[in-house]
Amino acid sequence: MREEDMEVAIKVVVVGNGAVGKSSMIQRYCKGIFTKDYKKTIGVDFLERQIEVNNEDIRLMLWDTAGQEEFDAITKAYYRGAQGCVLAFSTVDRDSFEAIETWKKKVENEVGEINMVIVQNKIDLIDDAVVQDEEAEALAKKLRLRFYRTSVKENVNVDEVFRYLSEKYIQELSMVSEDDSLPLTIGQDVQNDTKNSSKDKNLKHKNNNDTITLKPSKKRTKKLLMNSKCVVL
Ligand SMILES: Nc1nc2c(ncn2[C@@H]2O[C@H](COP(=O)(O)OP(=O)(O)OP(=O)(O)O)[C@@H](O)[C@H]2O)c(=O)[nH]1
Question: Atom 6 in ligand 1: which residue has the minimum CA distance?
Answer without folding.
Answer: 21
